[in-house]
Backbone:
């Protein structure tokens, strides 16, 4: 009886130990994967915070967040013309890469300006409304459109589709930041 | 203060009161003796005053008068409701009698360098005044009543910041205030307004200090002055002695005479040893600092009942024949003051507001004197070290030794050149007080402070841009969710159309029943058109048949 008992005891303890070891190993692997994922996510978040959020698509991606994802996966970080040199500098510092010049194939850096519609020329085609990435243009079919200046990112996307060329990019007014805070409150109230 | 105590306080040993060591600092020549040669001069009434009310951006302006009104001296003209702090307001009073000719925007001699709304007063030279409020005994008043009186008199920080004095007291009201420091350390070259004020009107300053102590219910009140001003120290000692016999308990403390000991945080450190951390207010540490000019204005407001209509201003510089201190009426033009001092315009190279180290060039010589104009310099060509050739940084480290905030100016310069904002912030650029000590000691004549100012402005725009981009990001997300929602709803809409078909017949019957509350649809329209065509055909056929029948009958 006794030798048999010891045999089973040894068997049980061995198999138990094995199960424990495997589960611990699996846990480790799971934790590592989780860490990798969150690290990737937070990197995208950090890059996105540096990008200017004009959503202009000059980098070749539909918006700043997709470009941030692309950068985190190894795309060049010098393709954002509205951000200019400062954005490139900050990105290079974050990613620990050498500082590059702005890639001219994606456009040139321009001073921040907002779209202004010449309202008596507008025919109400709604093409610019569909092009606006931040819903900053107000108007309806066959009705005059206008740009909410405080919400315009200056992305230029509405200029090209306009069939009568009635949109100008003008320098933005100084008091815009004040209005931004108000918008923030309104957005907070939005359902 | 006995000679022994004075020596002890200068050495920083012994008795309870002794100044502490502070970092950095320089000892530039003071150039104060020229303007201190004569007594404070009352000024003649100028033909015109432009009384600054405030910039339109900083708040809303409520006018009590209109153009064409006749006003008396001490009459309240307007008040500026500050937008930043809801309930506070700064009233403005008439410095003399006359007729308001216009209300316009004009340059003001203060640090904003921008045009402000000014009330233009054509003086009549009669100086008829309203009866002053009867003086009340400030010892009988509660601290809230004192603060209200200070606010009503329109007193702002006379040292240069221009922050409303009553608000400063209010901001510390909910804390147990340990120490009130009256800042008599006027360390920047050329400026001698405070020293002249103390020499001649020390009783007023000390009484004002006592009122401020009562208003802010501070446990202790210390008047801090540099050890290099013996006349002023003597005057203060006498005034304090006279006052201590009655009620007050002000103390005098000598601080080492080095620049910039008169800067708020440096003075606090020098007096109490407390180093106010970056981004915090002295009130959070139980300390409050007021300028002697403010203290004297408080004395005038509560003891004499006079609102703030004048201030002591130093006029100095090589282009003036007789540099002196004036009791300048608020709103008189800089040029008028220079004329009285006998300016030689051919000698004047530039006009500075403030001292030689932190001074700003005035945008216009016709700028109006404001409540914060402490010094005006008409500088000659060889005064104020003309800018020589800028050479490369040789890493001597003099600037780091001189910096009173213990920053590393060399590092900041390197980061400013590469616009490395995160490193600039990490190295404490925002704590730079722009005192100019690093400029002064730099052997390569690098204009460090102006470079830092540019960097600060760039960082601030970067921060506002960041805030803005946050809103854009939010709006982009909202836009995307809206597009997605519309896409999700689109197929259900197309499915709904064929589902309507079998119901169409009942719709037709409904319309036949006279129910016309239904929407336009293509199928229905084509059916109706088809029906109409059929009806027309049928009618034609019928008429043809009838015609053939008639033909037959014929």
Residues:
């Amino acid at each position: 009886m006794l030798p048999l008992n010891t045999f089973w005891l040894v068997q049980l303890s061995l198999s138990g130990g094995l199960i424990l070891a495997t589960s611990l190993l699996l846990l480790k692997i799971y934790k590592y994967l989780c860490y990798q994922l969150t690290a990737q996510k937070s990197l995208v978040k950090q890059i996105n915070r540096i990008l200017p959020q004009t959503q202009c698509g000059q980098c070749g991606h539909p918006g700043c967040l997709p470009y941030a994802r692309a950068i985190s996966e190894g795309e060049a970080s010098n393709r954002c013309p509205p951000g200019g040199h400062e954005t490139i500098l900050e990105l290079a510092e974050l990613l620990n890469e050498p500082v590059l010049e702005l890639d001219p194939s994606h456009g040139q850096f321009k001073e921040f300006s907002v779209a202004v519609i010449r309202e008596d020329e507008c025919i109400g085609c709604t093409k610019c409304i569909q092009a606006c990435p931040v819903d900053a243009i107000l108007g309806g079919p066959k009705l005059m459109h206008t740009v909410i200046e405080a919400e315009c990112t200056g992305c230029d996307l509405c200029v090209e589709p306009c069939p009568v060329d009635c949109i100008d990019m003008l320098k933005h007014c100084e008091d815009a930041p004040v209005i931004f805070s108000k918008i923030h409150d309104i957005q907070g109230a939005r359902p | 203060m006995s000679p022994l105590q004075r020596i002890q306080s200068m050495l920083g040993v012994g008795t309870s009161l002794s100044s502490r060591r502070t970092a950095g600092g320089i000892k530039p020549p003071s150039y104060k003796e020229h303007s201190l040669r004569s007594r404070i001069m009352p000024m003649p009434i100028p033909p015109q005053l432009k009384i600054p009310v405030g910039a339109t951006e900083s708040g809303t302006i409520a006018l009590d008068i209109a153009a064409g009104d006749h006003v008396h001296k001490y009459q309240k003209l307007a008040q500026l409701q500050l937008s930043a702090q809801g309930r506070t307001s700064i009233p403005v009073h008439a410095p003399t009698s006359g007729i308001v000719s216009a209300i316009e925007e004009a340059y003001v001699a203060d640090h904003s360098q921008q045009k402000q709304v000014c009330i233009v007063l054509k003086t009549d030279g009669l100086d008829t005044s309203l009866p002053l409020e009867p003086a009340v005994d400030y010892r009988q008043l509660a601290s809230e009543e004192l603060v209200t009186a200070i606010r009503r008199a329109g007193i702002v920080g006379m040292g240069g910041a221009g922050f409303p004095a009553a608000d400063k007291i209010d901001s510390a009201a909910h804390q147990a205030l340990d120490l009130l420091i009256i800042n008599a350390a006027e360390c920047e070259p050329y400026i001698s307004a405070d020293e002249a004020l103390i020499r001649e009107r020390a009783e007023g300053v000390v009484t004002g200090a006592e009122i401020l102590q009562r208003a802010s219910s501070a446990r202790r009140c210390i008047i801090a002055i540099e050890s290099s001003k013996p006349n002023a120290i003597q005057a203060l000692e006498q005034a304090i002695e006279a006052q201590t016999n009655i009620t007050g308990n002000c103390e005098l403390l000598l601080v080492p005479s080095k620049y910039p000991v008169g800067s708020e945080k440096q003075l606090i450190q020098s007096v109490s040893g407390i180093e106010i951390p970056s981004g915090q207010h002295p009130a959070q540490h139980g300390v409050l600092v007021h300028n002697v000019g403010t203290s004297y204005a408080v004395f005038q407001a509560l003891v004499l009942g006079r609102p703030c209509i004048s201030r002591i201003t130093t006029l100095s510089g090589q282009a003036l024949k007789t540099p002196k201190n004036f009791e300048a009426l608020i709103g008189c033009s800089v040029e008028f003051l220079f004329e009285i001092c006998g300016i030689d315009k051919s000698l004047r190279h530039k006009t500075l507001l403030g001292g030689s180290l932190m001074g700003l060039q005035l945008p216009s010589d016709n700028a109006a004197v404001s409540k914060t104009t402490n010094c005006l310099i008409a500088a000659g060509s060889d005064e104020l070290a003309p800018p020589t050739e800028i050479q490369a940084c040789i890493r001597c480290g003099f600037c780091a030794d001189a910096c009173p905030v213990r920053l590393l100016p060399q590092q900041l310069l390197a980061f400013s050149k590469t616009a490395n904002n995160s490193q600039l912030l990490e190295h404490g650029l925002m704590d730079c007080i722009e005192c100019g000590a690093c400029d002064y000691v730099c052997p390569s004549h690098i204009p460090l402070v102006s470079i830092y100012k540019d960097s600060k402005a760039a960082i601030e725009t970067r921060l506002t841009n960041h805030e803005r981009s946050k809103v854009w990001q939010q709006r982009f997300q909202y836009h995307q969710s809206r597009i997605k929602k519309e896409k999700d709803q689109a197929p259900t809409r197309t499915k709904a159309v064929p589902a309507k078909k079998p119901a169409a017949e009942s719709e037709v019957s409904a319309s036949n029943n006279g129910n016309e509350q239904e929407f336009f649809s293509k199928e229905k329209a084509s059916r109706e058109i088809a029906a109409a065509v059929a009806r027309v055909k049928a009618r034609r056929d019928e008429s043809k048949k009838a015609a053939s029948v008639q033909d037959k009958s014929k």
User: Anything to note?
Assistant: Chain A touches chain B at residues 48-49, 51-55, 63-65, 85-86, 89-90, 93, 132-136, 151, 153, 176-177, 180, 183-184, 187, 190 (CB under 8 Å). Residues 2-50 of chain A form the longest helix (49 residues).
